[in-house]
Write a structure and sequence with these properties.
single chain; GMP Synthetase, Chain A, domain 3; globular; AMP-dep_synth/lig_dom; AMP-bd_C; Rossmann fold; about 450 residues; alpha/beta; nine-stranded mixed beta sheet; medium-chain fatty acid-CoA ligase activity
């Protein structure tokens, strides 16, 4: 797509000239047309300063949408902050980029902080070209038309939320806003706003199944896009039984959202892994490490060496591309547990644990150990806290599914699983501090 076409796709003025009276935003039931949204953007433009990048705390609300579209119209780069951060955390992040003297790319659109596993999050720079390339790649599999409505139920400070804004603007479709996620409110908004797409994380889907077991989707719903963490086979199977269309996604901030998705035609069926590679994306596995290339890649981390045009990006994930074309992600390289010289992928162990009728949720991490390097440790949320199984019964039940070196050696039953500030599973061993761990099987010093 040419620069002129990209600028037009991300222009609220162009959208309003094409679809003036069409719905642009459904704000808690109130329909705002593209013409009306343009007026709000013009008012907001008068309030904005010329700082580069412009600092914006992005919540799933109308003011954020208006601000983002106003800044995209200005072609003014945006530095996004998550609304859950404290003022201190925002100040630390702002200071971390304040003295960067590297000039931003001419078409820089947004800078998002990656979650990071150590140290401060890194500022990933996404250009206008990358955002539209991502939207086009996604649209090559997931049809997004004028009459579609995408529910914004996650923060635009994360690429999964921000891409809903840019994809919807480029497609001249509508964005719906609703209250903070609660199952009852979420399902009511889905119905009242006539939602056709919604992006959620596995935890949200699990809550829907737990709290609204009889819910079935309205025929208008084309798909729930599920990403941000591995989705268990159990969840996929339950969705298939209930006729709920799921599209698995795999992507990251650095790739301007998903690069792998379930084929649209298979959304009512349980599928393998995270789906197939999006049109226009190059993805390959080298010795088990996932590399990505394409126009949707970031220009680089601000303040560090930029990516060269056509350069392959090391995702930091471990996975494979099967002969069937499906991509299977096993773990983040930093999440992999090395126990006694053997590689253990947490998601595989979690999937086996969640097969147990007594286990509602599982989180697997490595506990540092003198003898083994790390020992496989699991935090488990029970389905019924009054019916906790014996340790030996858990070991016996897991035997058909896991090699002995993968099976958890220590467990603790908890009320809920720890999460990072980004809402992803927290596998930091510090999460085990203060917990009473039960030994299932163990060889070596305690």
């Amino acid at each position: 797509m040419s620069k002129e076409e990209t600028d037009k796709a991300l222009s609220i003025s162009a959208a309003a000239s094409e679809r003036a009276e069409a719905p642009a935003v459904i704000d808690h039931g109130k329909v705002i047309s593209y013409r009306e949204l343009l007026e709000l953007v013009r008012q907001k433009d008068k309030e904005l300063d010329d700082s580069v990048p412009y600092h914006l705390t992005a919540s799933p609300c109308l003011d954020t949408i208006v601000s983002v579209f106003a800044l995209l119209e200005r072609k003014q780069p945006i530095l996004l902050f998550h609304p859950g951060l404290t003022d201190y955390e925002k100040r630390v992040l702002a200071e971390s980029v304040a003295h960067i003297d590297q000039k931003l790319p001419e078409d820089a659109a947004v800078i998002l902080f990656t979650s990071g596993t150590t140290g401060l999050p890194k500022p990933a720079v996404l250009t206008r070209r990358a955002l539209i390339a991502s939207a086009e790649a996604s649209r090559g599999n997931i049809p997004l038309n004028h009459d579609d409505v995408w529910l914004l139920s996650i923060s635009p400070a994360r690429i999964g939320g921000f891409s809903i804004l840019t994809r919807s603007l480029a497609a001249r479709s509508a964005i719906a806003l609703g209250p903070k996620f609660k199952v009852e409110d979420y399902l009511r908004t889905m119905e009242e706003a006539k939602i056709t797409y919604s992006s959620i994380v596995p935890t949200m889907l699990m809550k829907v199944f737990d709290e609204a077991p009889d819910w079935r989707p309205n025929p208008r719903l084309k798909a729930l896009l599920v990403g941000g963490a591995p989705t268990s086979v159990k969840l996929k199977e339950e969705a298939e039984k209930k006729g709920i269309p799921l599209i698995m996604t795999y992507g990251m901030t650095e790739t301007a959202s998903n690069v792998v998705t379930t084929p649209f035609s298979l959304r009512f069926h349980k599928t393998e892994g995270s789906g197939r590679i999006n049109p226009g994306v190059e993805l390959e596995s080298r010795d088990g490490h996932i590399f990505v290339r394409g126009d949707m890649l970031m220009s680089g981390y601000w303040g560090r060496k930029p990516l060269e045009k056509g350069e392959w990006f090391d995702s930091g994930d471990i996975g494979e591309v099967g002969e069937d074309g499906f991509v299977r992600i096993f773990a983040r390289r930093t999440d992999m547990i090395i126990s006694g010289g053997e590689n253990v992928y947490p998601a595989e162990v979690e999937e086996a644990l969640e097969r147990l009728p007594s286990v509602k949720n599982a989180l697997v991490l490595g506990k540092p150990d003198e003898t083994w390097g790390s020992i496989v440790t699991a935090l488990l949320v029970p389905r019924d806290k009054d019916q906790i199984p014996k340790a030996e019964d858990i070991v016996k039940t897991l035997e058909p599914y896991l090699a002995a070196y993968k099976s958890p050696r220590r467990i603790a039953w908890v009320e809920e699983l720890p999460k990072t500030s980004a809402g992803k599973p927290n596998r930091n061993p510090a999460c085990l501090d203060g917990l009473m761990l039960t030994s299932l099987h163990y060889s070596g010093k305690h």
